[in-house]
Amino acid sequence: MKALSVTEKVKLILEPKLDGINARLFVTREDGITIYDSIQNNTTTSVAALVSGVWQASEALMGLVYKQNDVMDFRLGFDTSSQGIFLFPFSLSGKRYFLGAIYNDCLNPGQLKRHIALIKEEMERLFINEPIPKKIVISKRQDFLFQDISDAEIDRLFSLGGL
Predict the structure, then answer these.
(1) Which of 20, 60, 102, 163 would suit a FRET pair with 135, their CA atoms being 20 to 30 Å apart?
(2) 132 within some domain
(3) Domain residues for 94?
(4) How far apart are CA 94 and CA 102, in angstroms?
């Protein structure tokens, strides 16, 4: 059986929970790359990038008052009583990710936040034994394809006249 990717595993965890949660659920990497979004549309990439940026900005601000480096116990909420965004950081394979929900017209935001917290804990439990991917080592190049080409030949190659 083929091993599932992180994206496939996240999808297996989140897809069954969508019926019980009236919110847009998403998972992003720390660098702003989308891992999962329950609403795939033209805003998916923007949401991931903005989540990463807002978390990093919040971390910088917290650094002014909270001198410890571990912010994994924090969560970020920007909401009113019925709409908003809620973010949790979590770790998979030694890398930081964010689980979030964007919600509107929510009757019980406290219950929604609790569901998101439980999903985050479930994901951490399921991924706790996930191996850390090995880094690919790129060896130093021994030979060059065009070892004996001169600067003048390169200039002619990329000039309007070509060779």
Answers:
(1) 60
(2) no
(3) 6-127
(4) 26
In angstroms, rounded to a whole number, what is the distance separating the alpha carbons of residues 109 and 53? 24
Q: Is residue 104 part of a domain?
A: yes
Measured distance CA(27)–CA(90) in Å, rounded:
10
Predicted TM-score (pTM) of this structure: 0.70
Residues with Cβ within 8 Å of 45's Cβ and at least 6 positions away in sequence, in order, are: 34
Kindly state whether residue 161 falls inside one of the protein's structural domains: no
Does 157 map to a domain?
no
CATH number at residue 39: 3.30.450.30
DSSP codes of every residue in 49-104: HHHHHHHHHHHHHHTTT---S--TT--EEEE-SS-EEEEEEEEETTEEEEEEEEES
CB contact at 8 A, 123 and 10: yes
How many C-beta neighbours within 10 Å does residue 11 have? 16
CB neighbour list of residue 88: distance below 8 Å, 6 or more residues apart? 75, 98, 99, 100, 116, 117, 120
Judged against a pLDDT cut of 60, whether residue 163 lies above it is answered with no
Q: Name the DSSP letter for residue 147.
A: T
pLDDT bucket at 25, cuts 50 / 70 / 90: very high
